[in-house]
Amino acid sequence: MSEVVDISQNLKLLDPHIPIPAYNRFIGSYLVLGDRSALIDPGPASARSGLLSALAKAGARAEDVHYIVLTHIHVDHAGGTGGIIHDFPNAVVLAHSRARPHLADPSMLWKASVKVLGDLALKYGPMEPVPENRIAEAADGMRIDLGGTILTVYLTPGHAVHHLSLFDDVTRILIAGEAAGVCVNGVIRPATPPPFKLDETVASIDRLIGLEPQRICYGHFGCYGDGLERLKHYKEKLFIWHEVIKSETEKGTGLKEMLTVLKTQDRDLDYLDSLNKDEYARELVLLNNSILGMAGTAGRA
Fold it and tell me: What pLDDT digit, counting tens, does each position of 71-106 carry?
C-alpha cells in the first residue's frame, strides 16, 4: 500500500511501496502542489500503480500535474517516466539537456542498467520512450513557477553528469536527489557509482551548502530538518572515504575487505547492523558500487 508523508503545506513525499523486498521507504517521489503541480522523480516502471495511488491519497488530480521533473535518469528515479507520462495529459518532462536523447530513446540506458543491475533492473521494469514533444530541457538557475511555489533548478553533477537539484527559496527546502548521498534510517552514506568525479561532486555540494537549506529531502529516502549540517557532513565523509579507498586500492585490497576498513573509519556504517536480511543485501550491492566508483577516482588522484 502506498504512503504519503506531509513535508510542508505544498510538499508531499510519496512512497509507492515498490513490490521488491527491502524497497519500501527507500525510493521516494515528491509532489509539489500548486496551480501547476510538479511530480519529482516518478521512479521505475514498477512504481506506477503505487505512485498513482499515492497521488490520489495526496488529493492531486492527474490533469493538475504540469511538470514531471527528473533529478537524474537512473532507472530507479526515472525508469517509469515513459509509461507514466500518458497518465498526465498536461505534463512535460523536465530534465538535464544530456538526459533528453536517453528519454526519447532509452534503449542504450536500459541495456546499461541491465548490465550493471542485472535482475534488479528487470524487477524495476522496462523503460519506455518519452514522446519528444513532451520533453523540456532544464537550465541552471531556471525558475519553475508552479503558482504558489517557485522551485529553482541547480545543476549538480557528481552522482551523475546529468544530475540536478531543486530549491524553494521561501521554505528553504532542498530536494537533493542523490547529490547529497543516500539516507537510510537517518544515516547518510555515499552514492558514488562509476564513473565518479570527486571534484565535481564536491563542487556541487559546496553550491548546495551556499543555499543554506533548512531542510533537505533525499531521493533515498525522506526529509530532515538539519539540511545545512547534513551537507557539510556528507562533504567530510566523501573525503574520508576517498583517503581510505585510495590507500586500500594501492594495497590491492578487495571490496569485502575495503568495506570492513571503511567501517572502522566511518562509524555511520554501523547502520548496517540494524538492517534485516533483504535490506542488508540491497545496501551491500549499492555500497560496493559506490566503492568501485570512488576507487576509480582514487586511482586517478
Answer: 999 999 999 999 999 999 999 999 999 999 999 999
Using left for φ > 0, alpha for ψ between -120 and 50, and beta otherwise, residue 185 falls in left
Cell 510538499: give the residue. Answer: 11
Closest CA to 132 of 100, 164, 88: 100
Contact 55, 63 (CB under 8 A): no
CB atoms under 10 Å from CB of 292, counted, come to 16
Residue 195 burial (10 A CB sphere; 0-12, 13-18, 19+):
exposed
Strand locations in the chain, DSSP E? 3-6, 11-15, 29-32, 37-40, 65-69, 92-96, 135-138, 143-145, 150-155, 164-168, 173-177, 182-184, 187-189, 215-218, 222-224
Q: Mind listing the pLDDT tens digit for each residue in 142-176?
A: 999 999 899 999 999 999 999 999 999 999 999 99
Q: Which of 288, 74, 38 is nearest to 178 (CA)?
A: 74
Report the distance separating Cα 270 and Cα 262, nearest Å: 10
Torsion angle in degrees (nearest 10) through CA of 294, 153, 188, 79: -70
Residue 38's nearest CA partner among 8, 10, 3, 79 is 10
* CA distance linking residue 184 with residue 65, whole number of Å: 29
Is the CB of residue 54 less than 8 Å from the CB of residue 62?
A: no
Nearest by Cα to 16 from 93, 85, 76 = 76
Distance CA 256, CA 258 (A): 5
The DSSP bridge pattern shows strands 222-224 and 215-218 to be antiparallel
Proportion of the chain above pLDDT 70, given as a percent: 98
Q: Are 178 and 71 in contact (CB under 8 A)?
A: yes
Question: Does residue 242 contact residue 298 with C-beta atoms inside 8 Å?
Answer: yes
